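Methods — Computational structure assignment.
A single polypeptide chain was analysed. Its primary sequence is given first, followed by the predicted tertiary structure written as structure tokens.
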Amino acid sequence: MRPRTVVGGTGRGPGHAGVPGGRGVGVGRQNRRVSVHQITDPDDDRIADYRALTDVELRTRWEPPHGLFIAEGELVLRRALRAGYPARSYLVDAKRVDQLADLDTGDAPVYAATQEVLQRATGFHVHRGVLASFHRKPLPSAAEVLADARRAVILEDVNNHTNLGAIFRAVAALGVDAVLLSPSCADPLYRRSVRVSMGEVFAVPYAKLEPWPDAFAEVRAAGFTVLAMTPAPDAVPIQRLDAAQRARAALLMGAEGAGLTRAAMDASDVRVVIPMRRGVDSLNVAAATAVACWELGRDDPL
């Protein structure tokens, strides 16, 4: 089947496609033709990147080894493009093809299908109507992401993708400059993490920190104080940290429920707690990260 074309310049006003002021990637390219390849078979090899997106184990085996990740939703894919991730392909609800008409899709093919075909291929109802497959970029080293950072978050064993995405959204909003991940953390570029972060996972540099937790010495060598978040009774209330402890803070957060391991706690510099009320012992890890990041940055100039 020959590809059909969509002409750029839809005539929609400023702010179209969720981009304030109409300043999305490629906006302003009028009357550019985009070739659209119709997909009628959910097993078509051309859309293999999008197969069984709800199968976490399968996606974990497929995406990192093939150097790709999936972005869901127009806002997220535009943020990935702005962050410099090269697109491999696009897969769109046939009724929403015009949403890509202003994008410079380059050499990346645009595939369109009915909702039925999309659901059978991906394993879920693609209610946002737009998916894209992107090439990953090489991960920087921990030293590289810390070099220009003033504040960082270190995550141990955070393997819930929703929590991970929410943490990235919080640290992007609250002035954190880098995220360091233990080797057992979930993939920040997994579709759910990217979606929950609203694409902010692309805004904050991150790296693996290993060997764990011996590499905390590298964090200290970069001038940071490692602050371990814990409800332990001997922990310092976060609002009582002194200026030196706040100056270059690396906030260490553990997994939901289990918290930090003994090894990570022992390797930290200061144990820190968010004081609780009404007998509540702790917050969800994403909520705790947001509260702690706000507190550490509360005196930052706006």
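Note: The chain has a mean pLDDT of 90.
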